[in-house]
Amino acid sequence: MKIQNLLIIAIGILLISCREQKNESINIFICGDSTAQSYDTSKTVMRGWAQMLPDFFDEHVTIINKAKAGRSTKSYLAEKRWKEVMDSIQADDYVIIQFGHNDASSKPERHASYADYKQNLIKMIKEAKAKQARPILATSIVMRTFKDNALIDDRLKAYPAITRQLADSLNIPLIDTWLQSRDLVVMLGDEPSKALYMWIEAGIDSIRPNGSQDDTHLQSKGAVTIAEMVATDIKKQNLKDIATHVIIP
After folding, report:
1. Lowest mean pLDDT among 7-11, 23-27, 72-76, 169-173
2. Active-site residue 111, yes or no?
3. Residue 62 belongs to what domain range?
4. What phi and psi, each to the nearest 5 degrees, are found at residue 97?
């Protein structure tokens, strides 16, 4: 009887320990550019989608936003921003990797050829896995470019396609924010979709006092919309340890 009682106690302690481990916070690191980064809400109405992502998770998931404006896979690696993430990341943490906007740039410090872009992503994926972390690839959000009431988006070129193909070939989770944001902008149309992006009148934003007609960066409405897309996709794909903590209003 004593052995049975001890066994029951041991099992109970093990179950409690497992519950406590499951309740530990899982980190999601975000590596990307200005469309994801966090902004000072006292200075600008511009928002990054990752800035809004915490609103879609409960207290067991922590969002660590390391996205930075103007960065491509090339400059993010060169400036050792990726190394900083790898130095902090723990086993079972996630890292969402979303680049492309600045890789397509003609600026030499940013531009990455298609081959280099692919190799840079592979490097990031391998290094994350080496830390027993969980990489997720995300395509860039669509650049809201209309002509004759039709959406045309050729500025991102083949970078979203490369991201998509790489995720498939390496069996890495993909969040196709390019496709989802494109479909949304098409459904909304030219004028209504401006409310998602930094189309603002003069006097609204202290950083852009003369107003803005920006088809790349997001206002709060757009950032919340993209963040919800990301969280919904995480839940739909049932990603381990974080899917059950998604909150969709």
Report:
1. 7-11
2. no
3. 26-245
4. -110, 115
Q: Is 34 considered catalytic here?
A: yes
Q: Give the global pTM.
A: 0.90
Task: Decide if pLDDT at 15 tops 90.
Answer: no
The reply to whether 217 belongs to the active site is yes
Per the structure, the count of domains in the chain is 1
In a domain, 12, yes or no: no
Which residue among the candidates 20, 24, 59, 201 is catalytic per the annotation?
201
Q: List the catalytic residue out of 72, 101, 217, 228.
A: 217
Query: What's the pLDDT tens digit per position in 87-118?
Result: 999 999 999 999 999 999 999 999 999 999 99
